[in-house]
Amino acid sequence: MDKYDVIIVGSGPAGMGCAFSLIEKKKDIRILMIDKNRYSTGGMRNDCKMNFTFPIGFPLEYWDEDTANRYLEEVTRFLKPDILPKSNIETYQARATRLGCSLLEIRQTHLGTDGGLALIKELQEKLKENNVELSLGENMSDIDNEAKVITTDKRKIGYKTILIAPGRQGFHFLQDMMQCLNVHYVDNILDVGIRVETRLEHYPIVKDYYDPKFYFKEKVRTFCTNSGNAHVVKEKYATARGDIWYSVNGHAYAADENRNNGLVNFAILKTVRFTEPLASGQEFAEHLGLMAALMGGGKPLMQRVGDFRLGRRSKAATFNGDLYDFKPSLTDASPSDISLAMPSKILRYIWSAMKNLDTIVPGILHPSTIMYYPEIKLYANKPEYRDDHFQVAESVFFAGDGAGTSRGITGAWASGIRASNGMMDYLK
Predict the structure, then answer these.
(1) C-alpha distances in angstroms, 103 versus 130, 151, 221?
(2) Kind and range of the H or E run holding 234
(3) Which single residue of 79, 96, 286, 296 could bond 334 by disulfide (Cβ 3.0 to 4.6 Å)?
């Protein structure tokens, strides 16, 4: 049986942060990193937008400002980001304040999907140079922490300490591992919303601030803005029963005037926190996704703002001509009426936020603007952690968005470093 000092499950930013941190601390360490996919996953692969300002990406139940900033310094030192310039922010902030909203000023960098893939390749080469074994396409199925052995679809592997960091799409997998380890957890928080797509001239703030972070009343926020060569995409999810549904997301390629499609997209999300007797926010999200898939013939839904304001569904015929003056970047979505699929209370808060946003940045409610539904973020596992290093059982640590310790690339990387500090106790 193969044996390692450290096994890292997941090759996204949390796993990367942990691996490079351990290498710095102990040069002769044997590390194995596995991922069920045949390519490195995580937020770096899709758009690769990074924020370097607290509290963006740092859930407040696990991070205070001093702790987050200390780890952000380590992330910054390693990644060496080129921070994007901003201008005219005070004007937008003043407008937001008058409406009881806020615009956070965040240090950001954006590599784009193509730049993110180049970064992943560079990081993988660095891991290999430091003798980290990378096994892509290997799926962990079980863990026996008494014997310090995991089972994959290829073999059994021994460890001294292990980090499990699967990311958002590993939601079900992480719950299976918590059941194996008898780790108590709650699953009661999720973000539900839409992705907005429009022409750049209808959201000109992105010329001054690449990914503006607006916060509105009732826990509604903008998230993950993409502009230039920007696209809305589908993400496939499966329930425990094998039912398929799709969430939407957005990405953009690195800035290149020759490839600019003139569009911008961003999410508007409402954070929902459930209390008893609801057992699982994850299952609630799946029901919303399945309802949308049912209405959309297996596809996500899309609706023009002009149709929504008139109280009528969008049809294929309304996506061309007259005011409807651009082609959707996601053509594999069904013109529909999102108000039939989205809970009315959530939709009401989302629409209120959009009206405020149109006052702050006039143009977003142009009739041609598209609202795609659903956009759902599944990172709400809340394990019962034993210490500040995200240890859940003897020598077993979690990190990343799937475990609720972060929300984004830099937060995930920082949580991986934080977990590595606890893992060192098992390597001395």
Answers:
(1) 42, 47, 10
(2) strand 230-238
(3) 296
